Target: Saccharopine dehydrogenase
Amino acid sequence: MAEINRSTKAYDVVILGASGFTGKYVVREALKFLNAPNSPLKSLALAGRSPSRLSEALKWAAGPNSQPPKIPLLTADTSDPDSLARVAAQAKIILDCVGPFRLYGQPVVAACVEAGCDYLDICGEPDFMERMEASYHEKAVENGSLVISACGFDSVPAEIGLLFHSRQWAWPSAPNRVEAYLSLESDKRIVGNFGTYESAVLGVANADKLAELRRSRPRRPRPAIPGPAPPKGGPIIEQQKQLGLWALRLPSADSVVVRRTLATLTENPHGLPGVNESVETVKKREDFWSTVKPAHFGVKLGSKSLLGLFPVIMLGMFLGLLSKTRVGRWLLLQFPAVFSLGWFRKNGPSEEEVASATFKMWFVGQGYSDISLASEGSKKPDTEVVTRVMGPEIGYLTTPIVLLQCALILLNDRAALPIGGVYTPGIVFGPTDLEKRLQDNGISFDFISKKSLSY
Ligand SMILES: NC(=O)c1ccc[n+]([C@@H]2O[C@H](COP(=O)([O-])OP(=O)(O)OC[C@H]3O[C@@H](n4cnc5c(N)ncnc54)[C@H](OP(=O)(O)O)[C@@H]3O)[C@@H](O)[C@H]2O)c1
Model:
């Protein structure tokens, strides 16, 4: 196994795709920590195809009243492997913001794994993540490169939120199923940028390829969850009276990522050992995972009114109908605002729209007050626990906060983390202080209620 000498790397962090819509918000978040007191982030570089666009992004990120700091701008194009190799050779961590990841992500992962550089991204595309795991895990372990996708709103609030939720079920109680209800709120329009929309269009278009990849891979173990599995299917729309929401089942990356975290946990019940963990860290990690209780998990999009779900239902129908043909995809990609009924725009949301948006993700868990009840055949869950994760706008505020905090953990405490490999954020960051760091940066995790269920 290669022991990487990270101290010789010129940059702690390189942000690749810094000129993108999300990239520039990531740069803004990174500047808050660059050379700040007690921050391990001492050197930062931006990378992308165009130095002038990188320089504009840096100027924007520094704000209208500040001189942009002197930060190296590196030229890198995902179609030029040598340029990526040069960047990866100089970086401890690359934060990849170049999407759709199915089009541009693989060469970046390859360069990082080759150079033993750590890689974090903001991908929300399950097929990309699973392909990278299938292709690069072994080499990443060998070369000491940690590759962790989905370090943004997809899927850290869901992952860390579920771990937080499951730990509220004190022994002998245990959850059976947890439904996350995502509610997006704003007094302005809620808008996403084209990059996310394009990733979704291509994801639906290539759904068959993901199914094929999964068929070609060995089945992973499933966690032991007390009680029967919830029935498959179920209503697409549900009225969640307790939360005052209408909810639509979402084919989100979150549930797939959570499932992969739980599979890795089943294979490694004490979590993943760090490269060079202290005795206390080993104990902390093992204690942490001993309090986590796996559950069946799903995500729904909630809205205060049934009408509020209408644009998402329409977008889902358009994606299903049009994304499979070339002409259909062309139409979808030419007219995002039309097909998403205004939810996605080519030029993204305004700064005001971003600033005024927030999210709440409610975790409603049903389970047993005593795990032994679960073995009583048809016994229904008798307890409900509700927790909540809440934070600012998802794509351009929460995502950069999450990504930066993940990077800072890597810089601060690399010895406590696995030597390398392709993993989900939950299994790597679960036992770290990520939840606290997110709390300190405006993303809260709250226990809401616990009650008995009567039928
Ligand atoms: N996890 C989450 O919750 C979350 C949140 C937000 C975004 N995202 C994802 O992030 C990705 C980017 O979204 P976005 O809206 O920021 O897109 P965007 O504005 O189009 O930005 C794309 C970036 O990629 C760069 N790029 C494109 N092709 C490249 C290449 N061949 N080599 C190097 N750089 C290249 C672009 O650079 P140029 O300036 O040179 O064009 C730009 O910096 C999408 O996949 C989206 O789904 C995820």
User: Anything to note?
Assistant: The chain has a mean pLDDT of 94. The pocket of NAP is lined by residues 17, 19-23, 48-50, 53, 77-79, 97-101, 104, 122, 124, 152-154, 193, 195-196, 199, 395, 399 (CB under 6 Å).
